[in-house]
Amino acid sequence: MSTKLRFAIVGAGVISSFHARAVTENPEAELVAISDVSEEKVQKLAGEYGTPSIYTDYHEMLQRHDIDVVCVCVPSGMHAEVAVAAAQTGKHILCEKPLDTTIAKMDLMIHEARKAQVKLGVIYQRRTFPAAIAARKAVQENKLGKLVLGDAYLKYYRSQEYYDSAGWRGTWELDGGGALMNQGVHGIDLIQWIVGDVESVFARSAALVRNIEVEDTAVAVVKYVNGAYGVIQGTTSVWPGQETRFEIHGEKGSIVFADSGIKQWEFMDGEPSMPDVAGTASASSDASNISADGHYILIDDMIQAIKEDRDPMVTGEDASKAVKLILAIYESARTGLEVRL
Hints:
InterPro entries: Gfo/Idh/MocA-like_OxRdtase_N, Gfo/Idh/MocA_Oxidoreductase, GFO_IDH_MocA-like_dom, NAD(P)-bd_dom_sf. This protein is of the alpha/beta class.
């Protein structure tokens, strides 16, 4: 009898190959089935990874008893629909970011997973990057003293052709938002993971360049629960795309890091020199140029979480925070008022 955990993927778009590769290369996992409404897409992905079974209806696939984990790789606004169906058939769930696009749908996913006693993990691969881990550890060890500023600069380039390439992109219904909800959500998750939860936000957002329903540019001033302030800038309309950058400053030190690695690591108390950590691939100008390392780590973590009966590295509750902040930014931009979370 196989002790490998058996994975299935719903959605055969751009991100699905990162899941397929991480599953098929893990000695404790196997990819047994893939589903997508496009038969052409699902055949192509299954062919690349030697997956034996394909479906155009994921409900049919979920009836199988030999699937342990479902990777949710459909458009953002459909995450809850697939995740709830997976939970109701007793399958663990590993969901692409964002968790979903509304609070009601995220709450439903978390509730259904708990009710079915299955794991719900989410892909926020930036949490696995060495620079981010080092920065969080330094903040938690109070190396910076009282935190003063926590900033995230998330300046991407996505062409009009990118938005036109799939009907769901740039729509409120299925993308849930634009530069913040699709691209910036990683950085918004990360800055909160390092600095702490956000108390309130004041923001502006609009489509300044692209012909889309949602924003291609947003700026927000945030106040963290711990008293620090911060700026979040997110866009998909600047050329060339800039590497994402995070700046954390306290009364006793500063940490600045970007896709290419740590830029500043200075403490008043003369702490040890900058950690020797590598940078990572930047997707600021090309959506497919993300590093696959995070998916390997998070898929392996899901396997171990199931075997050890513990929470995965990024839980549904964790993952919902970034979306709640983005929704508050949208509300503030719409009303012109400060919004409390």
